Amino acid sequence: MNANISRRQLFRGALALGGVVAVGGSLAACTTTEPGGPDAEGGGGLLERARQQGLRIAIGNEPPYTELSPDGTVTGAEPDVVRAVCERLGIEKVEGIVTGYNDMIPGLKANRWDAIAAGLFMKKSRCAEVSYASPVIVSTESFGVRPGNPKDITTIADATERDDLRIGVVPGGFEQGILEEAGVPGNRIINVTDARGGADALAADRIDAFLLPTLSLRELDGVEVTDPIEDAPSTGSSAAFRPEDSDFLDAYNEELEKFKTEPEFAEILDKWGFDPTVVDGVTTEELCAVDG
Ligand code: 6CS
Questions:
Q1: What pLDDT was estimated at residue 3?
Q2: Nearest-CA neighbor of 5 among 274, 268, 207?
Q3: Mean pLDDT for the chain?
Q4: Where in the chain are the domains?
Q5: Is 88 exposed, middle or buried (0-12, 13-18, 19+ CB in 10 A)?
Q6: Is 5 near ligand 1, meaning CB less than 6 Å away?
């Protein structure tokens, strides 16, 4: 599979072949902490608090975007970039808290964590609630299907037009929005718990296809992964913060832009099988214009 997608192709949805571009790496062992109080002073307060107590990030535990190892080590594309940028900000600890995609923004607003670093893809409705840093991940979507793709599912139009198809999605995920926007009836959009749950549902014939980012599906045993779906919207992600933490976001973005030019950024990407070229020049504004 050619992992390089031209940016033009990606944004015109004309994906002939492609993979996923993003970052990755390893992260120091992390623990989770009790939720802290609200950051009343805004971003400046968060920066100081994070320097003293560490930064709490919400993750989905969906490799290669995020992964919580049995020993508590938090790795994955976004946490690794967050960890590297935080080091440059004098923040020594990054602590991962596993949660569902549908809880990430409400939990951020409730101060259960300080940021989201889960590959929470940018789209209009999310960008209206949280402030994203400069993009580090640009992704494609695929269907996970049973070997041989017996129902020949390859496009969102297939999912919309064929009443026999039951499509699995994770609750509140970007993919659920794709199907709802396309007009797939709710009784054919089947919630699964997470990536592993989707693979199990597929194997048990509770769903006919599992809609998830291409690279996430490739991590699952027993799941055949279609080429990137040409009629699915493409977007990307980065760390997301509360709008009132704008001072923190400004400081974070300043370091992130520098980090994206350093060899370590490219080294992190390769570790998770991503290619940074497509993310060059991609802006938060562009990705926040994605419908949904
Ligand atoms: O942003 C989202 O909602 C999607 N992101 C990832 C990395 N996996 C599935 C999820 O639906």
A1: 39
A2: 274
A3: 88
A4: 3-138+237-275, 141-225
A5: middle
A6: no
Determine which helix (DSSP H) or strand (DSSP E) holds 144, and give its type and residue range: strand 141-145
Class assignment of domain 3-138+237-275?
A: alpha beta
Angle at 39 between CA 35 and CA 42, to 5 degrees: 150
Q: Taking the C-alpha atoms of 46, 87, 243 and 260 in order, what is their torsion angle to the nearest 10 degrees?
A: 170
The size of the chain, in residues, is 292
* Alpha-carbon span 22 to 213, nearest angstrom: 12
CA–centroid distance, residue 101 to ligand 1 (Å): 7
C-alpha span between 207 and 275 (Å, rounded)? 31
Report CA(155)–ligand 1 centroid distance (Å). Answer: 18
Going from the Cα of 171 to the center of ligand 1, the distance in angstroms, rounded, reads 10
**How far is the C-alpha of 235 from the C-alpha of 284, rounded, in Å?**
10
Query: Is the CB of 101 within 6 Å of ligand 1?
Result: yes
Same fold, 3-138+237-275 and 141-225: yes
Is pLDDT above 90 for 11?
no
Once rounded to an integer, what is the mean pLDDT over residues 33-42? 44
Does ligand 1 have an atom closer than 6 angstroms to the CB of 132?
Answer: no
**Pair of tokens at residue 219:** 């991590």
Residues 6+ apart with CB under 8 A from 221: 199
> Interior CA angle at 137 toward 145 and 169, to 5°?
30
For the stretch 129-154, pLDDT in tens is: 999 999 999 999 999 999 999 999 99
CATH number corresponding to 141-225: 3.40.190.10
